[in-house]
Prior knowledge:
Blueprint: H1 2-17, H2 24-40, H3 48-55, H4 62-75
Helix pairs in contact: 1-2, 1-3, 3-4
Amino acid sequence: MEGARTEMLIALKFLATVDAWRDEDRRRQDMVDLAKVYRAVEPGQFDHEQAVRLGGLAYPGAERELRKLLDKIDRGKPLSI
């Protein structure tokens, strides 16, 4: 399942960007990595809802935050951690 790896990677990178214990520079790099991976996925080869569901397992509201983040990437909006 090639796609499942991509969704998991997106979810894990998201979790790294919101980890308050992680160094801010590393969190910024994780955000850049997440966006690069997400943009590189071929249309139809990514299960958006699976990525959001996986990222949402971390804490209440995480699904909503990841959904907003992916939407920003889709619209070419600036990202922040």
